[in-house]
Amino acid sequence: MITINEHYLKLRASYLFSDIAGRIARFQEEYPDREIIRLGIGDVTRPLPKACIAAFHKGVDEMADDATFRGYGPEQGYPFLRQAIAEHDFHARGAAIEPDEIFVSDGAKCDTGNIQELFSTDIKIAIPDPVYPVYLDTNVMAGRTGSHADGRYQGIVYLDSTKENGFAPEPPKEKVDLIYLCFPNNPTGSTITKDQLRRWVEYARNNQALILFDAAYEAFIRDESLPHSIYEIADAKEVAIEFRSFSKTAGFTGTRCAYTVVPQECLAYDKSGNRHSLHAMWNRRHTTKFNGVSYPVQRAAEAVYSPEGKAQVRELIDYYLNNAAIVRKTMAELGYDSVGGDNSPYIWVECRKDSWDFFDMLLRKAGVVCTPGAGFGRCGQGYIRISAFNSPEKVKKAMANIKAALR
Ligand code: MLT
Asked: For residue 134, how far is its CA from the centre of ligand 1 (angstroms)?
């Protein structure tokens, strides 16, 4: 008899964004003529930067020619891209990350979801609340939690991210083994200072713990005092893995390209306390289960680092940040407190009501899709997340509709 992984039965029925997509589809069936403005899932709306498109085309042309055609590439990514990443994303910020520590992949969602395979099932995990659901759900699937009660899984150490702590929790008093952090944060849009991040690195070093640092939104940082990478903190290479993505940086959500940094120094332990290289383990996993991002896509990603690419990416991010400013201003005018939106594409709005009710109300009365905060965890109750990924025209229209609905 074929039997199932019963840990799946502990999961909520569907993934948050699939659940929301279902609600929107039902609404559209009911009201086929109503215009809907999507400020929900963080999916980009603008085309790839011109520099990336040119490189992409050139890569495709090379695949059409006997002399330049390529079959399987290195699973970890082509040297040209790993070199460009190391130089521009890390060396330029004083972080000593080398190309062979970079693993190019098809998405930070997959990597943040898959990384937990490297660890034993009885480790103690700390996960922020609210949180990007992938971190939690993949650990539930792997059997690292008990059942779900009162909006929480047993066995997880939740790091409450609240108004009181500026949505940047401090390390817990108790000992944990694996810590998920995401800054600029999804969903709250909050940021972390170097001092705060240093305390996490110290905590991990003192507890033989590991930090999984999701920096998918670093390109949105405009406050130069904020860290773009955890490796800007001394000694972080021993205790941190970092995830990056070209999705939000350069509009690659539909093109798929990301990378994970696993430093050579990064260690974990077996039951006898022997040290093991996580770099070697991730390399083993990556080469066994992944066959590389396509050559033209990696050429397109490399172009992000050309002078034109950098300027175009900056302009692209500014475009979304301007939208974010419009959202924050409107919500403030309406008397709603919010955070995020200045170094992040997400605005976390205190709606002072049940978040799913507020979500439904905005959809029905304003035709605007947001994301209910409660979908990201218990601490998200009473909040909604508004994403800046749309055109300024649509964002302005959405804000006008919301004003009319709420007044
Ligand atoms: C989000 O809306 O939180 C993101 O789109 C999720 C993702 O990048 O997978």
From this structure: 9
